[in-house]
Amino acid sequence: MAAILDTNEQVTLSGQPFSLSFHPTQPLFTCGTVGGALETHSTTGSTTLKSKVQLYNATVRHAKYDPSGDSIYAVGGNGSVSCIAAATGATTWTASPNSNSINKLHLASGGNTGGLLLAGYDTGVIAAFDPRTSTKVGELTCHSDYISSFLQVSEHQTVATSGDGTLSCWDLRKVSGPVKGAALKQAHPALVKRSDELEDELLSSCLIKHGKKVVCGTQGGTLNIWSTGTWGDFGDRFPGHPESVECVLKVDEETVITGSSDGLLRVVQLLPNKLLGVLGDHEGFPVEGLEWGAGGTIGSYSHDEVVRLWDGGVFTDDGEGEAEAEAGEAVDVVETMREKGVGLAGAGSDDEWEDMDEEDEEDDEEGGEKMDGIDEGDSDDSDMDDDDEEGGGGKKFAKLQTPNEAFFEDL
């Protein structure tokens, strides 16, 4: 039975975190804060703060360890890109600040130099740096709004998502070229494909199904799913989150954790699509980021000054079923979601969720009749409840109300 963890560890920072990165091997994490500092904390012991480095006068928008854990790359709201020695906190290099703020950072493998540091600006431009130096080797332009996430989809290809409602795939071997890049209406040589434009901002991304599917969280709360290599339009969608999906974290090839603006961390199965449960919540604050740490820890942060650490062991199989036993002893997700005021409905497939969204739109146009969220073939609520008890091996899963349903219920 899906479960929620009723306890978690909390680490308080000196300011609101804007990013979170775990050391690849040690029980440490580093955050960039709104005050321009890099704070490194331990996930064990009574005293967590290990170091604090004032890096910028502006916000550290994103910071990330390199694969070895020896260096930390950071970008700021003042347009700066920096490399910091993790052991000493000394700045190895800083690229010349740009007049535009940088929103996201990605250390990509591949390319002609074996790796590139990609910085996504609020303007939609992606700058590529040699991570060994401060040299800018290329500038990629095809987006008209901020870069919200990066995702490595193959050895030489990286996907970027944007607030303009599109994603783009880039061949890093072709990045080198004019630093000014290409105009919006021109194709950059490194651009593999830009997707069709959606009427919804893309906020986050995750790779599942052994690299065959890319999942993107949206401002409207839908998870859009692209097939790798087919970048024009998404092939599947999973509606249901009542608010925006700010972050998506892979658990396994068919399961992700989503962080939403309503503060909940949901466990979601994809293809087939089901809401499995809730890992925890941020007490109403939007969940801005999720990361895996060494030892199976999951870290999340929000708009307060706290990083929450969750036990990711509930998702692992140790061969003796201990994780399943622990999950079974935790609070039932259905009861917990009711206590938190999240709307519930009967279990259903992804097709039923899509039908519910389509019917909601039709009712809005016809004058706003209240939807019951079931297919026309279902006779009544009691029949739906019977189906819930009999389907899915006896398990009942939670399903969220759409904003339209919640509105009419309040009336």
From TrEMBL:
Record-linked Gene3D superfamilies: YVTN repeat-like/Quinoprotein amine dehydrogenase
UniProt keyword annotation of Repeat present: yes
SUPFAM superfamilies in alphabetical order: WD40 repeat-like (SSF50978)
Keyword Repeat assigned: yes
Composition skew (Acidic residues), residue ranges: 349-367, 374-391
Cited SMART domains: WD40
Keyword terms of this UniProt record: Repeat, WD repeat
Domain of life: Eukaryota
Chain intervals for the UniProt region annotation (Disordered): 342-411
Similarity section: Belongs to the WD repeat WDR55 family.
Protein name listed in UniProt: Uncharacterized protein
Annotated organism of origin: Tetraparma gracilis
